[in-house]
Amino acid sequence: YEACAEAAGWLRARLREPPRVALVCGSGLGALAQELSEPQSFDYAEIPHFPRSTVQGHAGRLVIGRLGSAPCAVLQGRFHLYEGYSPAQVVFPVRVLALAGVHTLVLTNAAGSLRPHLGAGHLLVMRDHIDIPGLAGRSPLVGPNDDRFGPRFPAMTDAYDPGLRRLALALAPKELRARPGVYVGVGGPSYETPAECRLLRRLGADAVG
């Protein structure tokens, strides 16, 4: 907690206003930061205790400004278990931004479709997920619980806000063919075998990454 609080304090001391919404950009989506007005940009290497992004196409910058009327933080690049980071390091930026004032988090990524009706460029709005590493004990919640981050046993019935999901489906451009679905997270970095894809479909997943 102390490392997260130090990083959040470092940011607050430099920001014109605290962000209320954060977007974590997956592969190919980092250009969204160019839509921010009055942006302030910080390399991950500048921020105390922040991990370093090693994936090609992930710029490794935190950009904070206004998206429309909303004070917004855009993470250009995220962190993965397959880079050698622990689960706690993977979620470190999200915890920092929560302490810095963020109350709404939007996660994005480029994922593989497990269903014929989900084609390249289509938008899946997550209604639920299957966390394979988490089921195997690779979770940031494993270990001593710090109540300042949340309860020991968080409920996951509505992990993704129903109101925001409805809004995303209503506002998405028609060409994206947005629909709700279930995302399954795996460890990577290899892509899934055909047999693994068949297994994940039978588990009820619509997309994998």
From TrEMBL:
<dbReference type="Pfam" id="PF01048">
    <property type="entry name" value="PNP_UDP_1"/>
</dbReference>
<dbReference type="GO" id="GO:0005737">
    <property type="term" value="C:cytoplasm"/>
</dbReference>
<comment type="pathway">
    <text>Purine metabolism; purine nucleoside salvage.</text>
</comment>
<keyword id="KW-0808">Transferase</keyword>
<dbReference type="InterPro" id="IPR035994">
    <property type="entry name" value="Nucleoside_phosphorylase_sf"/>
</dbReference>
<feature type="domain" description="Nucleoside phosphorylase">
    <location>
        <begin position="20"/>
        <end position="209"/>
    </location>
</feature>
<keyword id="KW-0328">Glycosyltransferase</keyword>
<dbReference type="InterPro" id="IPR011268">
    <property type="entry name" value="Purine_phosphorylase"/>
</dbReference>
<dbReference type="GO" id="GO:0004731">
    <property type="term" value="F:purine-nucleoside phosphorylase activity"/>
</dbReference>
<comment type="similarity">
    <text>Belongs to the PNP/MTAP phosphorylase family.</text>
</comment>
<dbReference type="GO" id="GO:0009116">
    <property type="term" value="P:nucleoside metabolic process"/>
</dbReference>
<protein>
    <recommendedName>
        <fullName>purine-nucleoside phosphorylase</fullName>
        <ecNumber>2.4.2.1</ecNumber>
    </recommendedName>
</protein>
<dbReference type="InterPro" id="IPR000845">
    <property type="entry name" value="Nucleoside_phosphorylase_d"/>
</dbReference>
